[in-house]
Design goal:
It is a single chain. The chain is mainly β. It has a single domain (about 1-210), classed as Jelly Rolls. About 5% of the residues lie in helices and about 50% in strands. The chain is built from 2 helices and 15 strands. The strands form 2 sheets. Strands 1, 3, 4, 6, 11, 12, 13 and 15 form an 8-stranded antiparallel sheet that branches. A 7-stranded antiparallel sheet has the order 2-5-14-7-8-9-10. The radius of gyration is 18 Å and the shape is globular. The two termini are about 15 Å apart. The relative contact order is 0.24.
C-alpha cells in the first residue's frame, strides 16, 4: 500500500514537508522535462557540500520502499566524487540517514552506490550495470528493513534487482525511519549539476516501474479515460496519485 506519492503535477512542493537547501543548492518544480505528465523536480548544486533536497515526513516505521524516476545532466567527474540521489532518514538528530542511493566515480567508472549500515559500521555496495548515463530516465527503487538480525537493503533499477544485502544488523543507530529525501547533494563535485526527480512513491510493498498507459490529469474525463483503458486492456498510470503497486515475495 502507498504511504506517499507525488509526481509534482501540482506545479509546486505543496505535497511535501519542505526543502533542505545549502550553499548554492536549489529545488524547484519545472516543466522542461518529465517522465510522466508535465512536471518534475529540478534539484541543482554548483559546489562541494551543496544540497538541493525536497523531503517528506511520515509515520515512523522499520521497513519500506521508495521509488523515484531519476535523470541527471552530469555524472561525477573525478575519482571518488559522489552525487547523492535519494534515501530514508530519521528526523531526530539532524536527519540521520538510514539508507541512501548515490552515484559515485569509482576510479574512473561511474557506478550506482547503495549505502547501508551493518554491525555499527556504514558500508556500501556498487554496480556499473545498468550503465549510468546523462539525460536518461532511470527507475530507482530502494528497499530498507531495519533489524538486529534480518536487516535488508536492496536496490532495483528499471525493475531489476542489482544490489542486495541481507541478514544485516543495521538498527544499532536507528530502529525506524520517518522521512524520505530526494534530490541532490554534491560531495567533492564542483561542477554545475542538475538532477531531475519524478514519480516518487513510498510504500510498504514493492512498487516497480510505472505502467504504460494514460496519465490522468486534473480536469480530464476520468470515466471516458477508464472506459478506453479497460477496452484496450491498458494498465492505469498516474504517477502522482495512483502508482502501480505489485507484490513481490523475498
Amino acid at each position: 500500500m502507498a504511504i506517499f506519492s507525488d509526481g509534482f503535477e501540482s506545479g509546486d512542493f505543496s505535497a511535501w514537508t519542505g526543502t533542505l537547501l545549502a550553499g548554492t543548492g536549489t529545488a524547484t518544480v519545472t516543466n522542461t522535462t518529465a517522465h510522466h505528465g508535465t512536471y518534475s523536480a529540478k534539484c541543482f548544486t554548483t559546489a562541494d557540500g551543496d544540497k538541493g533536497w525536497v523531503y517528506k515526513t511520515f509515520t515512523a516505521r522499520a521497513d519500506g520502499y521508495v521509488r523515484v524516476y531519476f535523470k541527471t545532466d552530469l555524472l561525477p567527474s573525478a575519482a571518488g566524487n559522489t552525487l547523492q540521489i535519494m534515501g530514508f532518514y530519521y528526523t531526530s538528530g539532524g536527519n540521520t540517514p538510514a539508507g541512501r542511493i548515490d552515484l559515485i566515480n569509482d576510479a574512473g567508472t561511474i557506478k550506482w552506490r547503495m549505502n547501508y549500515r551493518n554491525g555499527g559500521v556504514w558500508h556500501d555496495s556498487r554496480s556499473a550495470t545498468p550503465t549510468p548515463a546523462t539525460n536518461t530516465w532511470f527507475c530507482l527503487e530502494l528497499k530498507l528493513v531495519l533489524s538486529s538480525t534480518v536487516g535488508e537493503s536492496r536496490l532495483y533499477i528499471d525493475g531489476t534487482e542489482i544490489l542486495t544485502q541481507t541478514g544485516l544488523n543495521n538498527n544499532d543507530l536507528l530502529t525506524n525511519f520517518d522521512i524520505v529525501r530526494v534530490g541532490i547533494e554534491s560531495e567533492s563535485e564542483v561542477n554545475d549539476v542538475n538532477h531531475y526527480i519524478d514519480c516518487v512513491v513510498v510504500a510498504d510493498t514493492y512498487i516497480g516501474t510505472e505502467a504504460a498507459g494514460v496519465t490522468v490529469k486534473k480536469g480530464s474525463n476520468l470515466s471516458a479515460t477508464m472506459t478506453e483503458m479497460l477496452n484496450s486492456k491498458m494498465l492505469f498510470s498516474a504517477c502522482n496519485r495512483f502508482p502501480k503497486l505489485t507484490t513481490r515475495r523475498f
